[in-house]
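Checklist before submission:
- one chain only
- standard amino acids only
- sequence pasted in full

Submission:
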Amino acid sequence: MRLTVLLLTLIVAIAFVGSAMATPPGKSVEYPGGDQGKVVFSGDTHGAKHGMKCNDCHPKPFVMKKGAFKMTKEGHGKPDFCGKCHDGNEHNGKVVFSQSKETDCGKCHKKAAVEAEPKKEAAPAAEEEKK
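Returned file contents:
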C-alpha cells in the first residue's frame, strides 16, 4: 500500500513539474504583445536543432516556471532576457536578428490577420406591387 501511494505521488509530482517547465520542441507558448501583436515562442526554433540547450536560457535569464516571464516595455531592447541572443550578433554559428531593430519587430510580434468581412449581398429588389 505504501509503495502504491509513493508511486502515485511520484507520478503526479513528475507530471506537475513537467507542465510548469520550459517549452519543449513541438510546443509553443503565446505571450500578449500589446498593440504590436502577440509573441509566439516556439520550442522548435529555440531548441536542439538550432544548437541550443535548456541551460542556455534556464534558469538565467528565464526561470523554468510557466507564466513567470513578463516582458515590460522598459525591458524590451535591453540585453536582458530575449536580447541575450537577439542582439544581431552570432550565436551557435548563426547571426540572430536584433530585438531592438524596428525592422525586425514582425519576427516575434504577430498581429492577428484581419479577417475580411463577408461582402453583403445586395438585397433582392422588392417586387413591384401588383396592380
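Reviewer check: The radius of gyration is 24 Å.
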